[in-house]
């Protein structure tokens, strides 16, 4: 049993009819009733979730540990219980983390927003577009308030939305009401101790005959755009549990170089996500093929965050704080 949490409609942040969605962007974020959702998750997925939530899998970034030593005990993240995904505030500890790690202060935020808006208005791709503040803040946090790379990523986003406008158009409600193939991903209701959102991806649950690939691509865009509306996710990032059980040749045929490059352009160069870890379970030919295509495009930093079920050496290194 899952609870469909209906996020607010996607805001038209672009102010341009050319790239504005042609229909309201409205889809549910699926959050399980319990963070293990007994009977629903395979045992190996449960183990990864339990380890992450209990600080046993080495995914607490060394920088967060350093910050926690600098702060008083009252501002440390909760030790007894992990924070929920659904939150309407940013706790004091994570406000300080945002300042220490992402360089955000009220003064710097306003100065950077003014500078970024000025740069965007002078840019041929983005001039004339009225960007909302909360939209731009995502990009500034992603780049630790460096305005030049933030502007480049906003420009990339506008290019993607103009050239692939269908990605931000609505998916008919009937697919969420009648098709199990829409439930190949879910946001777990408990965060990691470091505040990261945990996204479980089970591509093997997707049936291309039931849920067409064009709608699958829309859903990928929707997942990232909706999750990143959350300030806690913007600050702390996302960790992925990618379970490839059930993937087969019917999925493999969609892992073309063109498709994988589009996903790379969207998720790495256009969407301001902070991706902290990728834990892969049940390796398959689909995973090996997709990874072979995408790997050359990724930075060494991103490659180092891909972990596999039997990758115990790197897991031990991260637990001991030797991985950066």
UniProtKB/TrEMBL annotation:
Gene (UniProt): Ttpal_7
Gene Ontology CC: membrane
Protein name: Alpha-tocopherol transfer protein-like
Organism, scientific name: Araneus ventricosus
Classification via InterPro entries: CRAL-TRIO_dom, CRAL-TRIO_dom_sf, CRAL/TRIO_N_dom_sf
UniProt xrefs under PANTHER family: ALPHA-TOCOPHEROL TRANSFER PROTEIN-LIKE, ALPHA-TOCOPHEROL TRANSFER PROTEIN-RELATED
Family matches, as Pfam families: CRAL_TRIO
Residue ranges of domain CRAL-TRIO in the record: 193-324
Molecular-function GO term, any one: phosphatidylinositol bisphosphate binding
């Amino acid at each position: 049993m899952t609870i469909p949490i209906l996020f607010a409609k996607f805001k038209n942040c672009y102010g341009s009819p050319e790239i504005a969605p042609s229909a309201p962007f409205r889809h549910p974020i699926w959050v399980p009733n319990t963070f293990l959702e007994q009977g629903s998750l395979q045992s190996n997925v449960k183990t990864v979730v339990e380890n992450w939530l209990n600080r046993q899998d080495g995914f607490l970034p060394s920088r967060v540990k350093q910050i926690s030593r600098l702060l008083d005990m009252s501002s440390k993240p909760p030790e007894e219980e992990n924070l929920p995904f659904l939150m309407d505030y940013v706790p004091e500890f994570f406000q300080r983390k945002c300042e220490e790690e992402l360089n955000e202060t009220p003064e710097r935020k306003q100065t950077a927003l003014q500078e970024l808006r000025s740069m965007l208005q002078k840019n041929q791709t983005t001039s004339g577009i009225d960007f909302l503040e909360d939209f731009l803040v995502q990009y500034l946090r992603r780049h630790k308030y460096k305005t030049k790379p933030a502007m480049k990523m906003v420009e990339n986003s506008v290019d993607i939305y103009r050239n692939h406008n269908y990605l931000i158009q609505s998916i008919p409600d009937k697919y969420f009401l009648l098709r199990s193939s829409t439930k190949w991903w879910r946001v777990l209701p408990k965060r990691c101790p470091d505040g990261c959102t945990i996204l479980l991806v089970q591509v093997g649950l997707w049936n291309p005959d039931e849920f067409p690939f064009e709608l699958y691509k829309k859903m990928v865009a929707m997942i990232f755009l909706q999750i990143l509306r959350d300030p806690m996710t913007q600050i702390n990032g996302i960790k992925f549990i990618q379970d490839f059980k059930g993937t087969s040749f019917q999925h493999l045929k969609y892992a073309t170089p063109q498709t994988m490059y589009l996903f790379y352009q969207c998720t790495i160069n256009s969407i301001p996500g902070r991706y902290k870890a990728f834990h892969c379970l049940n390796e398959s030919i689909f995973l090996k093929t997709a990874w072979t295509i995408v790997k050359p495009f990724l930075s060494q930093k991103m490659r180092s965050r891909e972990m596999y079920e039997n990758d115990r050496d790197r897991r031990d290194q991260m637990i001991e704080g030797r991985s950066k």
